[in-house]
Write a structure and sequence with these properties.
Length: 281
C-alpha cells in the first residue's frame, strides 16, 4: 500500500515559513503585496481568487483584488497591469486565467513586469527556467518539487515520466525534474505505447485532466505517483487523474484533494515573498 504524501501538511509548513518571512519584512516597513486581477464572473475563477486572498491574509501578505467586468477591453486591462507594474507596494501581479474570449491572455502575461510575474508565465521567466537560472518557478510544478524534497525523494538518475505538456504544468515540470538530474520523458495525446512508457517510470507525474486516467497496470510497483489532476467524477466528486486502485501498486502517492493542490497556493505565497525581497533590496 502506497505511502500518502500529505500535501496539506507540507503546504502548511511552507505557509508558516512564508508567514515568518512576511512578518519580518513588515517589521522593516516592506509588507509584501500581491495584486490579483479577475475579469468576468467565472465561478471557478472566483473560488480560486478567494482562496488566494484568504491565503495571503493568513500569511501576512497584503493582497488587493481588482475585479473587472466581463466586457473590459484589452486596453483597459493592459492599463491596469501597467499601473500595477509601477506600484511600489505591489510586488506580485497575478491575472486569473482563463480570461473572457475577446481578451488576449498572451498579451496580458507579456505586459506583466517579469519581476512581478509570480505565476512565472512570462516568456522571460520561462526562458530563465529553461536555462536553470531563475527567480520564480511556476507554482504547481514548484509545489510538486517541494513535495518530493520534503518527503526525501531524490529524482537524480531516476526515470521520470510526465503525462501532459501544457505550458503551466507539463513542460515546466519536466524541466524542473531535468534540473535535478532525472531522465525525463514527456507524454501527450499522440504518445504511442503510453502504458509501457509509464510502467518504466520511477516517478510518474500525471497532468492530463481526466479522472482515473492512470490505472494500476500503467504503474511500476513501488513507483512515486504524483497526481496533478483536478477533475470531477461522474458523481461530481473532486478527483485526480490517478485511479485510486493505483495505491495498491505505488510506493508513494499524492491524494486528490490534499496533495498537489494545496502546494500551488503555498508556492504562490513563496513567490510573492521572493518578488518582494528582490524589489525592496
Ligand atoms: P491541459 O489540458 O492544458 O493539458 C493536458 C495535457 O494532457 C495535454 O498535454 C494533453 O496532450 C495531455 N493528454 C490529454 N489526453 C491525453 C491522453 N489520452 N494521453 C496522453 N496525454 C493526454 O491541462 P493542464 O496542464 O492545465 O492541467 C492538467 C490537469 O492538472 C487538469 O486536471 C488541471 O485541472 C490540473 N491542474 C491542477 C493544478 C493544481 O494546483 N493541482 C494546477 C493546474 C492544473 P496534448 O498536448 O497532445 O493535447
Amino acid at each position: 500500500m502506497a505511502v500518502k504524501i500529505d500535501g496539506k501538511a507540507i503546504a502548511a509548513a511552507v505557509r508558516a515559513e512564508v508567514r515568518a518571512e512576511a512578518e519580518a519584512m513588515t517589521k522593516q516597513g516592506n509588507t509584501p503585496g500581491l495584486a490579483v486581477i479577475l475579469v468576468g464572473d467565472d465561478p471557478a475563477s472566483r473560488v480560486y481568487v478567494n482562496n488566494k486572498k484568504k491565503a495571503c491574509a493568513e500569511a501576512g501578505i497584503y493582497s488587493e483584488e481588482f475585479t473587472l467586468p466581463a466586457e473590459t477591453t484589452q486596453e483597459e486591462l493592459l492599463a491596469l497591469v501597467e499601473e500595477l507594474n509601477n506600484r511600489k507596494d505591489i510586488h506580485g501581479i497575478l491575472c486569473q486565467l482563463p480570461l473572457p474570449k475577446h481578451l488576449d491572455d498572451k498579451a496580458v502575461i507579456a505586459a506583466i513586469s517579469p519581476e512581478k510575474d509570480v505565476d512565472a508565465f512570462h516568456a522571460a521567466n520561462v526562458g530563465h527556467i529553461l536555462i536553470g537560472d531563475y527567480t520564480f518557478l511556476p507554482c504547481t510544478p514548484a509545489g510538486v518539487m517541494e513535495l518530493l524534497h520534503r518527503t526525501d525523494i531524490s529524482v537524480e538518475g531516476k526515470q521520470c515520466v510526465v503525462i501532459g505538456r501544457s505550458n503551466i504544468v507539463g513542460k515546466p515540470m519536466a524541466m524542473l525534474l531535468l534540473h535535478e538530474n532525472a531522465t525525463v520523458t514527456i507524454c501527450h495525446s499522440r504518445t504511442q505505447n503510453l502504458k509501457e512508457v509509464c510502467r518504466g517510470a520511477d516517478v510518474l507525474v500525471a497532468a492530463v485532466g481526466r479522472a482515473g486516467f492512470v490505472t494500476p497496470d500503467m504503474v511500476k510497483p513501488g513507483a512515486v505517483v504524483i497526481d496533478v489532476g483536478i477533475n470531477r467524477n461522474a458523481e461530481g466528486k473532486l478527483c485526480g487523474d490517478v485511479d485510486p486502485a493505483v495505491e495498491e501498486v505505488a510506493g508513494y502517492i499524492t491524494p486528490v484533494p490534499g496533495g498537489v493542490g494545496p502546494m500551488t497556493i503555498a508556492m504562490l505565497l513563496k513567490n510573492t515573498i521572493t518578488a518582494a525581497k528582490a524589489l525592496t533590496k
